[in-house]
Amino acid sequence: MKLSGMRVAVIGGGIGGMTVATAFAQRGAQVEVFEQAAALEEVGAGLQISANGQRVLAALGMSARARAQVSPGTQMRDGHSGRKVAFIPQPSAGATWYMHRADLLDLLVAAATEAGASITLDRVVTPGSVDADLVIAADGTQSLWRSVVDGPVSPAFTGQVAWRALVPVDGAPLPDQPATLSMGSRAHVVSYPLRGGSLMNLVAVEERSGWMEEGWRQEGDIAEFRDRFADFRGPEREWIQRAQQVHLWALHLRPVARQWVQGHTALLGDAAHPTLPFMAQGACLALEDAWVLAEAIEAAHDVTLGLEAYQAARRARAEQVVALAKGNAWRFHLPRPWSWGAQMVLALGAGALAKRLDWVYEYDATGVIRRV
Ligand SMILES: Cc1cc2nc3c(=O)[nH]c(=O)nc-3n(C[C@H](O)[C@H](O)[C@H](O)COP(=O)(O)OP(=O)(O)OC[C@H]3O[C@@H](n4cnc5c(N)ncnc54)[C@H](O)[C@@H]3O)c2cc1C
Which of 83, 115, 279, 290 is deepest in the core (most CB within 10 A)? Predict the structure, then answer.
């Protein structure tokens, strides 16, 4: 069906919402994005965009490469000694990019606006309060709309907390370099450079008992952060000690929604498939959803059939990636002596491990919907 003139309401102006707004507006739909925040701003943190996500950005005509650092792979280290354990090469589907979240959001907002989408800020949109031919709920992990489309869901605290920090680089910018993943006892740290090597992005995950606030913007105590990760050796040590500001985020689990569509409403991104960050795929899945949803509606005879095709094309893929991320939660945190065994297996099988993940990165959302 032709999308020109179709009234599409997008709830949420995050990465998923802005991507789907662009995909529909470029096909001629009249798109309005509603964002509850008073300004469009992403938190200061990094994002890995792998080849599967890059394909969608390219299909939308966006040249995001200029704002990214290109990853040569991932260096895995033993957190206690700093010793190199294994090198995971870049995927055969293509090198992953490291981007500042705000830079990706800027590019998406510019693309959506250029394609004619309008953006309304400071507006919380609740189910039933919007009139459109198609409503796309890209309202994140704590989605209000999910409870209407798929029923209520209770989050379960995983017992893990992620600290994140951006540390300015003194002196010459860092060159493109591998991400580092250091595995400690019940904790791990990931680091990679951003913005032309002027910043180092840190994500440090530790196990903790007790329930904590969910959300990205909770400021953490810098002394507590340095203290908690003080026994990490290797390159992160210096970055951890130099960090001046840190944020905390309690990791919660919610299952992938069974039902992604109802009537003329579709869930997209974290609203449909919240994931733990241990495969760095949440935003990439949202990019994939956005392209497939626009294609599925355009290729179908009506909205209902298009929405069914969208769910059929996307749910199994999201479930598989989310399950993989959940599995990594414990692999990175084994206490000694089990961690030695796991590291040995990694050292011997890093190439094979990388190959086993090829299906994640080779996925091409732009070829999923076939037109009749
Ligand atoms: C520490 C960490 C590291 C990560 N690293 C990576 C990575 O390297 N690679 C990767 O691909 N993914 C990564 N992710 C996951 C990724 O950030 C998310 O999956 C992605 O941002 C989801 O986008 P979204 O648009 O679905 O949701 P969100 O970004 O959460 O956007 C939802 C938006 O909806 C708005 N909203 C909510 N309710 C309403 C309402 N009722 N009305 C109006 N507006 C509303 C919110 O204000 C928000 O702006 C990471 C996540 C974390 C926490």
Answer: 290
